[in-house]
Amino acid sequence: MKAVCICFEVHLPLPTRWYWPLEGYTIPEMDTYFDVKRSLNNYSKLKSNLQVINDAIDDSIERGGKYTFDISGIFIEQCKWAPETMDSFRLLAEKGAHFAASPYYHSTCSLFPDLQEFKEQVQMHMRTIEHEFGVKPLTFVNSELLLEQRSMEIIKEMGFKCVISEGSQNLLNGLHPAHVYYNTVPTMLRHINLSEDIEKLFSDKKWPGYPLIADKFATWISNMNGDVTTLYIKYDALNSHLENGEKIITFLRKLPECLDAHGIEMLYPEEAVERFKKEEMPSLSSKKTARYGMHNLIGNHAQHLYMHELVNIGKQIQNIKPENKDKMQALYRYLQQSEIFLEMKNDAYYGHGYEKAVNNFSIMSDIKRALLEEVQ
């Protein structure tokens, strides 16, 4: 029997401010470098429809649906602005939804030479998930679906049963993503096309697949090769679709029954890795990948230099006064967000990569100045 695993990424980044230090400088605070007001505005836009979406997922679970949520630590912090949001996710946990773990700050720290920072952030996220939802994460999803083989032993030691990563062509090399793959921790790869049919194309009336109804989607999966199709979808995309009508709600509610009618079972990732034979994929041990490719994160000089500066700042933080370490470390970790790297691309989607890079290095310079003052 074929299966499908569906994981939702619930995350909104904390955007940086346009920053240029004034003469005399200021004390480093969250509002110094990060646009908290804009973050609140982004959260408010998503929050308005979250209850409707979560109610649809609740109904889908009642009909046999199984879903895993990858909720970032940053998003959990943002929920303080509307505690009822967390309550709705706790209700989904009570109904059977599972929760994955990842680096707390949606960070790129798995690319650091020393993986201690990565380990600490994953542990921090695991503790937060257990505290908020009463469940222990068994699935690991790295930020931007990063696959970095050096981190696999740490992930295994933490007790994770499986990893979800990007089904990129440099890994697949002509193979099909719809399998469980043998690795230090069994690995499942996102089916990019099917995930983006829901995430990006669902509301596009010019798309040949429009309108996408649950039965049509189930038919596509039933006609594919492989054991288990892994879908990884950004939750805020569902919100965008909801603003274009109720079709996404109907889709979510009917999906379990339509999949079942086509002989497709919905499974949690940790169930899938127990159910299916693990296939070989040599490239998993020799190549890196991330959502849409590693070049998106560290493909230009500015991104490489920013990564280098982060590593150096991490070393400096270890030497500052203990009473100020927690605050400076939190600021440092927010500066590791994957979105900061992505914004330094200079393509048609993001744009202004050069200006973003100048701004990020302005922030970085002021952080380094503050750290030097702390150790003197």
How would you briefly describe this protein structure?
With 376 residues, this protein is an alpha/beta fold.
Structure description:
This protein has 376 residues and is α/β, with parallel strands linked by helices. The chain folds into 2 domains: 2-285, 7-stranded beta/alpha barrel (Alpha-Beta Barrel), CATH 3.20.110.20; 295-375. 50% of the residues lie in helices and 11% in strands. The chain is built from 17 helices and 10 strands. It has helices spanning 30-33, 36-62, 73-78, 83-95, 116-133, 152-157, 169-172, 192-199, 214-222, 235-242, 247-261, 269-275, 295-298, 301-317, 322-334, 338-343, 353-375, and strands at 2-10, 67-71, 98-99, 139-141, 162-166, 180-181, 187-190, 228-234, 264-266, 278-279. The strands form 2 sheets. Strands 1, 2, 3, 8 and 9 form a 5-stranded parallel sheet that branches. Strands 4-5-7-6-10 form a 5-stranded mixed sheet, covered by helices on one side. The N and C termini lie far apart (65 Å). The mean pLDDT is 94.
Span between N and C termini? 65 Å
Largest sheet, if any? 5 strands, parallel
**Which structural class do you get from the secondary structure elements?**
alpha/beta
Instruction: Return the string of H and E elements.
Output: EHHEHHEHEHEHEEHHEHHEHEHHHHH
Query: What is the overall number of helices?
Result: 17
Multimer state: single chain
Rg, alpha carbons: 21 Å
Number of discrete domains: 2
CATH class of the largest domain: Alpha Beta
Give the helix proportion (percent range). 40-55%
Strand content: 5-15%
Low-confidence stretches: none
Mean pLDDT: 94
CATH topology of the largest domain: 7-stranded beta/alpha barrel
Total beta-strand segments:
10
What is the CATH architecture assignment of the largest domain? Alpha-Beta Barrel
Shape: globular
